[in-house]
Write a structure and sequence with these properties.
Blueprint lengths: L16 H14 L3 H10 L1 H4 L2 H19 L1
Helix pairs in contact: 1-2
Length: 70
């Protein structure tokens, strides 16, 4: 029997414009709303990422973060 889909947590999220546009596009293409799309991505995180790419992209993101905050 499938697990019941119940949104139990709400939290304020700050996102970049690029990140939000990609989230909206992913949600639209998948037929989900943004909250459902985030739930899907995080519930299935290990199977939807490439660990080597994640580590590399995270390193780049962190190195640019201070400049992007200005």
């Amino acid at each position: 029997m499938p697990k019941r889909f119940r949104l139990t947590r709400r939290f304020p999220v700050a996102m970049t414009e690029d990140g939000y546009r990609k989230l909206k596009a992913f949600a639209r293409d998948a037929g989900l709303d943004e909250g459902e799309a985030l739930s899907f991505l995080f519930e299935n995180f290990n199977s939807v990422i490439n660990e080597d790419n994640l580590t590399h992209r995270l390193r780049i993101f962190n190195s640019e973060l201070d400049d992007r905050k200005r």
